[in-house]
Write a structure and sequence with these properties.
- The protein has 318 residues and is mainly beta.
- The chain is built from three helices and 17 strands.
- The protein has one domain.
- The strands form three sheets. Strands 3, 4, 5, 6, 7, 8, 9, 10, 11, 12, 13, 16 and 17 form a 13-stranded mixed β-sheet that branches. Strands 1-2 form a two-stranded antiparallel ribbon.
């Protein structure tokens, strides 16, 4: 019952954004060839479960502090109205997604099991690459070993203070809880706190390769992203490194990921950085489908209120 309440509280921010958005249909050509032969219609690009890291952040963060977040994943499928129309690797065509941005802590409940709410700042980068093979989740390499086919940055709608919000709630874990619980433990020296969170952001497209995205003009369309972040890892290997600039191929994978020096012996607690298993969905939507500035504040307050209510209920049962 505890976990059920925590999940409900964590999803408040993400659902608040998603309910205001609609997915627009665009043209996508996975073959990257001229002409209409390879064109398909899509409304969602759905990456597989991937990796994120918060540089300079863990569960002890306080309001006003800022962290840098990096994300990398392989594309999984592209869909139209919920139906799969392309699977990554079909016809030898592979795609990866990487992003980097900063977030500022807006609020925290504190304590041993804190809930943290973040505002996503404007700027950063969001890139999609066409590659010859999937990126390697375990090593973290070759998520940028390909051709850049879409680029954007995190941007707020006019009058909004942030490009989006995110949150994470610690639910337990610590010493004895392995960080890597997928397909064998590749990092036996690293344990982790457990938890769940999500984020929703607006991304303005600045470049789109017309061979892959015919008719998608820079400045005319944005990408709306929602994601769920979970600890420990149970569906993918934690990455050993990240590419902090969003470019550079194998040589660009310079930011350590799942190492004791990067995340400590207990991820999210005693290291300078924190890693998350991340599951994202990318939809193409209109600029009007973002919340007003007041909505951002209300969503954060609603999340904290849900957590306080949960704690009161738990205490009343003791």
């Amino acid at each position: 019952m505890l976990k059920k309440w925590l999940v409900g509280a964590c999803l408040t921010v993400s659902l608040g954004f998603a309910n205001t958005a609609r997915a627009d249909v665009i043209t996508f050509d996975p073959t990257g060839t001229a002409g209409a032969a390879g064109n398909i219609q899509i409304d969602v690009l759905d990456p597989t479960v991937g990796n994120s890291i918060a540089l300079g952040g863990n569960a002890t963060l306080q309001p006003g502090q800022t962290v840098t977040a990096l994300y990398q994943a392989n594309l999984g499928i592209a869909t139209l109205s919920g139906n799969t129309v392309f699977t990554n690797g079909a016809g030898g065509d592979y795609f990866t997604v990487v992003a980097g941005f900063t977030e500022t802590v807006l609020a925290t409940t504190g304590g041993s099991f804190p809930t943290l709410v973040f505002g996503t700042n404007e700027g950063g980068y969001f890139n999609i690459y066409a590659t010859d093979a999937p990126g390697n989740n375990l090593t973290g390499t070759c998520f940028t070993c390909g051709t850049l086919i879409l680029q954007g940055s995190f941007a707020a709608a006019p009058g909004n203070p942030y490009a989006g919000t995110s949150n994470f709630t610690v639910t337990g874990g610590g010493a004895g809880t392995n960080l890597d619980q997928f397909n064998g433990d590749n990092y036996p020296a690293i344990d982790t706190l457990t938890g769940i969170g999500s984020f929703s952001v607006r991304i303005d497209v600045s470049y789109a390769d017309q061979l892959y995205f015919p008719g998608l003009d820079a400045g005319s369309t944005l990408v709306f992203a929602t994601s769920q972040q979970v600890l420990p890892y149970g569906q993918v290997d934690p990455s050993a490194c990240f590419t902090p600039t969003g470019a550079g191929g194998v040589a660009g994978c310079t930011q350590p990921g799942a190492t004791v020096g990067s995340v400590g012996t207990i991820n999210a607690l005693n290291g300078p950085n924190t890693m998350f298993q991340t599951d994202a969905n990318l939809s193409f939507v209109t600029a009007s489908a973002v919340p007003e500035p007041a909505s951002l504040t209300l969503l954060g307050l609603g999340l904290l209120g849900s957590v306080r209510t949960l704690r009161r209920r738990i205490q009343s049962k003791k």
